Amino acid sequence: MISRISLVAFLFPFFCASQTFNGRIIDKMTQQPIETAAVYFDNTTIGTTTNENGEFEITYTDAIQSVLVVSFLGYERLKINKPTKDRLKLIELIPKAVDLDTVIIETDPWTRERKENYFKRYFLGRNSMANDCRILNIEDIDLRFSPSRGILYSSSEKPILIENKKLGYHIKIDLDVFDFTFKKLNTENTEFSVAPTWIKKEIGTFYRELNPIKKVSKRRLKLRDETYEVSALRFYRSIVNETLIENGYKLYYEDKEMAPKDHFRVNKEGNFFSLAIKHKLYAIEDKFGNKTLVAPNQQVFTINSSGLLLDENGNASKKGPFAYRGFFTVLGISMRLPNDYQCLSCSK
User: Fold this and answer.
1) What is the pLDDT of residues 7-53, one digit of tens each?
2) Does any domain span residue 38?
3) Which of 93, 127, 157 is the last residue of a domain?
4) What was the pLDDT predicted at 210?
5) Which residues contact 80 (CB under 8 A, 6 or more apart)?
6) What single DSSP character describes residue 44?
């Protein structure tokens, strides 16, 4: 059994000592410094940009186990799994090769408006808060629908910029993959399901305050805490803290309520956690009655403090430990919080 105190100290940065990570970013070909390159820990509020000498400095805690992302327009995006361990001082970015668009023989039958509507609905979320969440540069997103495959492909050379007025975040997203698969309804490939049957997504995310020079209002802090209460992040932390029942969750297997301790086994392994899940599919219900089907991607796996799966070499993947169907899937970016978010009004 893991001590709750040790887990809280590990998962919540304000209990940990701060450290500083310094580095310099240059062009690999010319060896010249790159100014204003973005450097951030994925899906957190911890990040910065380089100065005119390509130098950066980030203050972090041991609780941060996210991938370090380095990006700059015109260069290959770099992801570093263990930046604090490797103590990288010099980071070389590789210029992107000239990418000529792949010739698409088949005609894209969908209008730009239709494709944008799908993207916004499933990227921002299918909830009322999404109405106050705006993509500032949607014109930079390339959207192409393949009728033969039934896939809507999404890509962007530039970071996607999002303004979330409700939660008060400016969100910068590096879009790796966000593709929608639709079910064909006839053999002529002219009709498809009205909603995607599968969404493949891998994104890099950095958060900052919408108004960084102003104190966050009590109303906005309250809304963030309320959002956290129904989030997948809250559910994940409740699992590793072994506080599912205390935090109001009910666990069901084959329509029968189960005791979490009989189905989720947690062991701390150094700075990571090993989780063993008894079955392949569960239903969970939060204290507000929201229901989600939860399927572990593996029945035994190791995760870091950001909830990312680790491979056999200890590198963090872009996948989370669970696949969801139901309430969690409608939250989208509009109701997503950074992994380092701290809910001061919530029990841990």
Assistant:
1) 333 333 334 567 788 889 999 999 999 999 999 988 889 999 999 99
2) yes
3) 93
4) 92
5) 67, 68, 69, 70, 86, 88, 91
6) B
In a domain, 215, yes or no: no
Calculate what percentage of the chain has a pLDDT beyond 70: 85
Is 117 in the same domain as 183? yes
Residue 221 falls inside a structural domain = no
CB 280 within 8 A of CB 301: no
Query: 311: pLDDT confidence band, cut at 50, 70 and 90?
Result: low
User: Between the CA of residue 333 and those of 81, 132, 207, 210, 232, what are the distances in Å?
Assistant: 23, 11, 11, 15, 12
Tell me if 24 sits within 8 A of 54, measured CB to CB: yes
Same-domain status, 160 and 247: no
Q: What percent of the chain has pLDDT over 90?
A: 53
Tell me the per-residue pLDDT of 206-244, one tens digit each, with 9 for 90 and over: 999 998 888 999 999 999 999 999 999 899 888 888 899
Place of tokens 């790796």: 176
Amino acid at 95: P
Q: Distance of CA 31 to CAs 26, 54, 91, 219, 342, Å?
A: 6, 11, 10, 48, 40
Q: What is the mean pLDDT of residues 60-74?
A: 81
| pTM listed for this prediction | 0.82
Handedness of CA 56, 91, 81, 142 (dihedral sign): positive
- Together in a domain, 267 and 202: no
Residue 62 lies in domain: 4-93
Q: How many domains does one find in the chain?
A: 3
The two structure tokens encoding residue 340? 């380092």
Which amino acid is it at 82? K
Looking at the structure, tell me whether residues 246 and 319 fall in a common domain.
yes
- Please list the residues that pair with 209 across neighbouring strands: 169
Q: What does the alpha-carbon distance between residue 225 and residue 329 come to, in Å, rounded to a whole number?
A: 19
pLDDT in tens, 254-264: 999 999 999 99
Element (H, E) at 226: helix 218-229
First and final C-alpha spacing in the chain: 17
Residue 342 lies in a domain: no
